[in-house]
Specification:
With 445 residues, this protein is mostly helical. Helix content is 75%, strand content 0%. It has 18 helices and no strands. The longest helix has 46 residues, at 267-312. The chain is globular. The relative contact order is 0.20.
């Protein structure tokens, strides 16, 4: 195992409730509220749409169980970047980090902020032109909050996670007990055929589940990461799987499939107003906006930690600046500003729905490497070095791998041009690494 981990300068102050709030808060955000229409359109029937959310959750849970074993053996700041490097070596490790700081991290922040701004514009009665400014202002505000020590962001994560349970509970209870539709067996008759099929429907749900691995980026800031990390990942994903299934059934019991198809991204806002009236709908929309702010907060907490970990290794241009942490709060302020700047750029040039699918594809390329990595680590290390062991090994990792392949193939078939673009951006990282290392070599001489 590579022992060249960055010297820890971040505070180990995150406990169990902070960790699980970050997992749940980072996962439950825009996906479950904005992907109902696209999942239903792709699946074609309400039964298959519910199945897609369950299947996406199972894929995510098997991935979480697999990565939990790996993460417990490498409780360092950096998450997936650190895992891939320790298992496969320097080049693939760098690409895993580069992918997250240049493509995946900023794109997922831009996507969530883009979805959230749709609700915010509706909430304040503003036009479409206000969506990007609202998204940018919100990301900047949450980013500024995270320039302080990690406890500030962690407290905000707990508050927003508790807060988001109110609209979730309202939708589930109202849909299940006051809905008059049959959640199962409805067909979307207004489209001639399913737009993409079950595979694309599952891919759309995975954006809703995405974010579970981001807690691993905070491994160096947990009080007892060997025990805490697996528990937070597994309990967090399981809770979200149950919540998502209940929300989907609740929405389908309250609104007919053809109406969900027509409403698309506005399904949740319409349901809130129909179910609770104008004022109640506004309050529910406010709760969902707070929920999405919590998701953004989780992502803005975690992605700068990858930038920090890479910069401490000298893997990025301007690493000396990007690895700077504040003397008192030990917060990676320059790395945080860097991620916010890239996310803001993407908000102006990409549609949030398209970004979300490409984000999932890009990160699953490296998830797959991590899933295969559990077999390599089992051969390399004996059982005494494993603080946590994946249950039902090797079945669970095999299901995770099969799910990952399913995701990649579905997106390649659905959007080959977007796939080529994002893979190209990842590969560009290699000459940049070469250039940075050449400059370092010249300095040493």
């Amino acid at each position: 195992m590579n022992n060249q981990q960055p010297t820890e300068e971040l505070k180990r102050s995150l406990g169990f409730w902070s960790a699980i709030s970050i997992v749940v808060g980072t996962i439950i955000g825009s996906g479950i509220f904005f992907k109902q229409g696209s999942v239903l359109d792709s699946a074609g029937t309400s039964t298959l749409a519910i199945a897609a959310w369950v299947f996406g959750g199972v894929i995510t849970l098997t991935g979480g169980l697999t990565v939990a074993e790996i993460g417990a053996q490498m409780p360092y700041t950096g998450g997936l970047y650190v895992y891939i490097e320790n298992i496969y070596g320097r080049i693939l490790g760098f690409l895993a980090g580069w992918m997250q700081v240049i493509v995946y991290g900023p794109a997922i922040i831009a996507s969530v902020a883009g979805f959230m701004s749709i609700l915010m514009a509706n909430f304040f009665g503003l036009g479409v032109a206000w969506r990007i400014p609202l998204a940018v202002i919100t990301v900047l505000a949450i980013g500024v909050m995270n320039l302080f020590e990690n406890k500030v962001g962690a407290i905000f994560a707990i508050i927003t996670t508790v807060g988001k349970m109110v609209p979730i509970a309202a939708i589930i209870i109202f849909g299940l007990f006051w809905g008059h539709q049959d959640a199962f067996g409805q067909t979307v008759t207004e489209i001639h055929q399913a737009s993409g099929g079950f595979g694309v429907a599952v891919l759309a749900t995975l954006f809703g589940y995405d974010g579970w691995i981001l807690i691993a980026n905070l491994g160096g800031e947990m009080k007892n990461p060997q025990k805490l990390l697996p528990r937070a990942i597994i309990l967090g994903i399981t809770a979200v799987l149950i919540i998502y299934t209940l929300i989907t059934v609740g929405i389908l019991k309250f609104l007919p499939a053809n109406l969900i198809h027509r409403l698309g991204e506005n399904t949740t806002a319409y349901l809130a107003t129909r179910a609770f009236g104008t004022i109640g709908g506004k309050l529910l929309s406010a709760g969902i906006i707070i929920s999405m702010m919590g998701t953004l907060n989780g992502k803005i907490i975690t992605f700068p930690r990858i930038v920090y970990a890479m910069a401490k290794r000298g893997d990025l241009p301007f690493s000396r600046f990007l690895s700077y942490v504040t003397p008192k709060g030990k917060s990676p302020v320059v790395a945080t500003l860097f991620i916010i700047a890239l996310a803001t750029f993407m908000m102006f040039f990409f549609d949030p729905d398209h970004l979300s699918d490409l984000c999932v594809f890009t990160v699953y390329c490296f998830y797959l490497l991590a899933f295969f990595g559990i077999f390599i680590l089992r051969r390399r290390n004996d059982a005494t070095t494993r603080p946590f062991s994946t249950p039902l090994y090797p079945l669970v990792p095999i299901i995770a791998i099969a799910g990952g392949i399913f995701v990649l193939v579905s997106e390649i078939i659905n959007d080959p041009a977007g796939v080529v673009l994002f893979i190209g951006i990842v590969i560009v990282g290699l000459p940049i690494l070469y250039f940075v290392k050449r400059l370092d070599a010249k300095r040493l001489h």
